[in-house]
Every structure is written in structure tokens, then in C-alpha cells.
Hints:
Mean pLDDT is 89; it is low at 29-37. The chain is an alpha/beta fold. It has 14 helices and 13 strands. α1 (14-29) packs parallel to α8 (241-247) and α4 (121-152) runs antiparallel to α5 (156-173). Helices cover 44% and strands 19% of the residues. The protein folds into two domains: 3-279, P-loop containing nucleotide triphosphate hydrolases (Rossmann fold); 301-364, Ubiquitin-like (UB roll), CATH 3.10.20. The strands form three sheets. The protein has a seven-stranded mixed β-sheet with strand order 2-3-5-1-6-7-8, sandwiched between helices. Guanosine-5'-diphosphate is lined by residues 8, 10-16, 107, 109, 112, 209, 211, 240-242.
Amino acid sequence: GFKCGIVGLPNVGKSTLFNALTRTAAAQAANYPFCTIEPNTGEVAVPDPRLDKIAATAKSKDIIPTRISFVDIAGLVRGASKGEGLGNQFLANIREVDAIVHVLRCFEDDDITHVEGRINPVADAETVETELMLADLESLERRIVQIRKRAQGKDKEAMAALPMMEKALALLQDGKPTRHLLKDIDAEDLRSLKGLNLLTSHPVLYVCNVAESDAAKGNAHTMAVDEMAAAQGARTVVISAAIEAEVAQLPDEDEREFLASMGLDEPGLDKLIRAGYELLHLITYFTAGPKETRAWTIERGTKAPQAAGVIHSDFERGFIRAQTIAYDDFIALGGEVAAKEAGKARDEGKEYVVQDGDILLFRFNT
Ligand code: GDP
């Protein structure tokens, strides 16, 4: 599955947020039996209002949302790149994720020590980013010596790898994270970049953790983070981890009222999960029938056979075609039969690029 790693300095609210996520996941586990929770990994359902509508139209018995994982990556302190704190473990954990959720402390509280002695989320973001860049710089400088030698000796693999390594190294030496390379990157270069296994090439989402009273509107700190993120082309989400921790413990029927009293119309975690999903360039397609309506996750740009493979490898191997109904047509016309009659059920083949919201029925050889 796809994983977002939660990082940030100590005492910014990472664990509080992660625990709220896993408590939500634990509550969901009763309904969705395949939800497994490891100590520092929580798998959560991706909230999607389309599921209820499709299920109502298709008269499905069950609804099964799709999921993504969040990993609590503890141990980042100044000097982590040099092995301070939980440095090495931290670096190993962060390499395994697909995207980074960077939690920034935007709440004042004299009782909770800030490791740097002052609340300044933009400076904190730089501290964390510097550690990650130093770790990348060190690992690249170490590896590139060999690769340059081998490339000079006309080693094909090294010759193929070297250009991306040089580009990444130049960026890091210039004090910039390698995710700058993600802009307008083609599939082949993306593979090369991913192959370098760098910490700063993951896409980043900033989470501003604010006091309960600032959850609806943010504050001066979150505005500063917004400005920084905009300059980087990154997104931000404002959340009060304290509120989320409370919401996660409330019975469902009390949740709306509690949120409304805080000026919120949905849990911050829902916003966070959706933002994480978009950060990973993931989209959703659906399958719908009397038994269940189910959401499936694919990367944007996935073709029909590979999309079928997410359900079962047999579906991909024996793929013939996919009956495709767009979500809007399915809902507006009132389901599969009506959509077919209206000519809105298309038969798509191997080259079809699945679109977000497609309701698919696969035909395949066994
Ligand atoms: P971590 O070290 O980043 O995992 O931070 P924790 O989640 O352990 O939080 C550190 C301390 O800050 C704990 O005592 C939390 O209860 C507190 N904390 C977390 N979020 C908030 C918040 O939004 N407001 C306030 N006042 N305290 C918070």
C-alpha cells in the first residue's frame, strides 16, 4: 500500500495526531475487518462521499472504502543526519515512505517545551529540511564517486544512473531539496530519481498543528507556513491535534455537534487523509454491485489492465475489457442498467487510462 510518513521536531504533536489517526482506524476496524495496525503504522479509510451515493444507487449491502497508511517516524532532531537521537533508525524509516507529512508546531503552550526554545514553524521546517538534505548530500557524495568511475569505464548501468545523480547532487549542493526535480519529470527520470532513494525527493505536505481556538481560522504562524509552502508549491493543512484526539474518542453521533462547536464542518483528519491521497497522485475507481460498493486506489495514469490487477492478478493477466461508467452518469441515470440503456456504459480496452470516479466491471479470461 501507499504510505505517508509523519515527521517533525519533538513535541510538535506528531504522536497526538498519529494516535488520533489510529484510534479512528481502530474504530473503523470493527466495520472493515482487513484493517491491520502495527505499532507505528496505521491504515486508515479514505473518506469519500461518493461511496454512499454509489451504494445507495446500486443497493449494495456493504461499503468498502480504500485505504492509505500513515507511519509515525519519531526521532528527528537537529543532528539526525549525523546519527544523533534515533538518527539512523529515523533515516531508514523515512526511506520507506512515498510522501512526507511534516507536522509544524503552530500552538503556544508554555508547559510544553519547544526543543529550540521558541515557536517558529518556518524555522522548524528549515531545521528538519536541512537534516534531510545533509543526509542526502552525504549519501550521494559517497555513492557518486564509484558511479563516476564506472561510467568512465563505459559501464552501461552507471552511465544510465549518473545524469540524475549529478542533477540531484547539484541541487543539494545548492541547498535545495531534490523534490524540485519532480516538476515536469517524465516516467523514466522519475524511476531514476526514485532509484536513488533520497529523503528529499518525497513530496511534502505541511500540517500546521494549532490550538483548539485557532482550528477554524489558523493564526499568524499558519499564515507564515502558507507563504513558505506556496513558494515551494507545497500544500498545507491546518489541524488541531488536540481536537482530533477528542473527536477520535467521541461516539459518531456526537461528532458533528462537537466539530460545529469548534467552527469546523468535518474532522481535520478527513482533510489530512484526502490531502495525503492527493499528494501521492492517487485516484479512486469503484466497483459496485448488490454485495458491495468498493473503492480501489491506483496511481493517476494507470491503464485498465493494471487497474484490474489491484483487485486480483488474474484480472490483469486475463484482461479482456472494462465496462466503464463515469460516476456522474451512474448517479444521474440511476445505476448500471439505466446507464447502459442511455449508452453511457463504454467498453474500454487495454490502453484505456482509468479516470478518477470510474465505475468499472472487468471482463477477463481465467
Ligand atoms: P511529538 O513529540 O511531536 O510526537 O509530540 P506529542 O504528540 O507527544 O505532543 C507533545 C505534547 O504537546 C503533548 O503533551 C501533547 O499533549 C501536546 N500537544 C499536542 N498537540 C497540541 C495542541 O494542539 N495544543 C496543545 N496545547 N498541546 C498539544
